[in-house]
Amino acid sequence: MGSNEHTTVQTPSTEPSSSSEFTTFMRAYQDMVFSTAARLAGNDVQAQDIAQDVFIKAYENFEHLRMSPAAGGWLKTVATNLSLNYLTRYRKRWRFFSEQSSVPEVPVPDESVEDLGANERRALIEEALRRLPPQQRVPLVLYHFEDYSYQQIAQRLEVSLAKVKTDIARGRAALLPVLKSQGIEGAGE
Amino acid sequence: MSDALETEVSRALREVPLRRAPSSLESRVIAEIIRREALPWWRQSFTRWPRPARAVFAVACGSLAAALLMASWPFAPGGALAGAGARSAGLWLPWARSALTLVDVARELDAALVRAIPLDWLYGVLAAGTLLYAALFGLGAAAYRTLYLNLSSAGDSRS
Lengths: 189, 159
Known about the structure:
The complex is a heterodimer of chains A (189) and B (159).
Chain A: H1 19-41, H2 44-60, H3 62-65, H4 71-98, H5 118-131, H6 134-144, H7 150-157, H8 161-181
Helix pairs in contact in A: 1-2, 1-4, 2-4, 5-8, 6-8, 7-8
Chain B: H1 3-14, H2 24-38, H3 51-72, H4 84-92, H5 94-116, H6 119-158
Helix pairs in contact in B: 4-5
């Protein structure tokens, strides 16, 4: 679990008494919450808004969460739900305003990926994920990062099981150039 | 695509570490919490209202809904209790009859106004409104696609 020890917050005098405990709690989980939201929403600005809402909800339930071993799971579930709600809410509007005839190509670096550092490789995959259209990125992230089954994804997104499988397969195919460049065995099959 | 590939893709994606949250996130959350705490109770979420206030509000809403139902449904003209029922109800709900009279007057006034305006005018206004709405929506969509999306795409290609 990542932590952001570099962050400092000025504590105002009006802050609630439990806020330092809550701040510690937030520092322990904010990377996970932000990553979940950013991967699903595909937009860092929106991911920040979602992460903020998640922690506001966590603050409202902090009495139950502060000692709960399931706090991480609770936060992840809320982050996933809020991200999906955001995507669902704007799905029709987004389709109308920004339907693109072609999927943007996932950039593949010219240099050998073995020459890249871990950060660059991570950034490459994150960027490739971000460039996937939402209908491929969301089921792919739910399947590979959030451990949802195909059936659960179909139910959650209210689409058919066949569509989920097709979209995930297309998402993987779109990621293929990046994964191949990382030397993943079988990526060329 | 083979199962082996699925496993490999899964492994590759799981190896991607968590992204670091922006340093501003923590201060944003704390600022929002303080802002919400500073709001008077009646402007906060209903679940955070004091219990007596919630009870009073629920009773008031229930009473209002019941009163409106009683006033509008059974005693309305054509309703099940119109006529004799309404007259007897008027003994214990005199204000209901006054309210009904008021509703009738408003309805008649409305009908008279509609009758006074030629039907063609109404259709014309409706068509013009629909046309203007569609034009505005189309202009908004075109502007969004042309100005915002193109700029975003340009930003993406630069990054």
